[in-house]
Hints:
Shape: globular
Order of helices and strands: HHEHEHHEHEHHEHEHHEEEHEH
Mean pLDDT: 89
Amino acid sequence: xxxxxxxxxxxxxxxxxxxxxxxxxxxxxxxxxxxxxxxxxxxxxxxxxxxxxxxxxxxxxxxxxxxxxxxxxxxxxxxxxxxxxxxxxxxxxxxxxxxxxxxxxxxxxxxxxxxxxxxxxxxxxxxxxxxxxxxxxxxxxxxxxxxxxxxxxxxxxxxxxxxxxxxxxxxxxxxxxxxxxxxxxxxxxxxxxxxxxxxxxxxxxxxxxxxxxxxxxxxxxxxxxxxxxxxxxxxxxxxxxxxxxxxxxxxxxxxxxxxxxxxxxxxxxxxxxxxxxxxxxxxxxxxxxxxxxxxxxxxxxxxxxxxxxxxx
Length: 312
């Protein structure tokens, strides 16, 4: 499966041309073995919050491309609840909600009761709109300014995650730890330490493989992390990282350094999970080199080259 001429031209215009050689070399004459893995997409690439209807455009675009599911933010779901919910837009595009990304303060014990209560309310909204996964997004950490040290907060981080995990499991929602650059759980070592500390009966793993590479991990180490913890991986942000000038250094799938093919093979072998593998590409700003629809189309082309099928 080769890149379409339109996608090829768009990639060149986006300054991704240097990455095309390894991408195209990977496309051999032998068709890939078909995979049963279903792939969704997050809505972060589409500009504008609910007031600008960015998520509605995302739903239409992703539905037209045949992606299998959507992820959006808890705040977006809240905004649409005032108008009867997001479900009607999802149903019109035959695109189910899979997950909601919800940020929580994990380090301050004084805020824990309120944090857990807030996450419970978000879990209810996720279920109401058909979702089943809550992304447990750690709060930000201005390390250079505050001198934040993960080891000093490890116990509180684990305790808060455990309380949230137990509370939302009772509502039929699975909570997944999601390491993220610029937060209190950022690096590979911090991720491993957190996974070793939590009760994995209630807290599962939802890695963002691109974020981990951007956070300093070698691509092979990220693949090993997923392999070693595959039993608790129930969701994933499939994100590529090139370190380029657009999208915060991220890029459409196939143009970066993340070991995407190996990760797809691992997730195919895992079988059923509570959530879904979600393509993600940060963006939504005026400086984006192409429309979000076209970026999602390029990632789809890469996935098809790896044996992934999409809805008609």
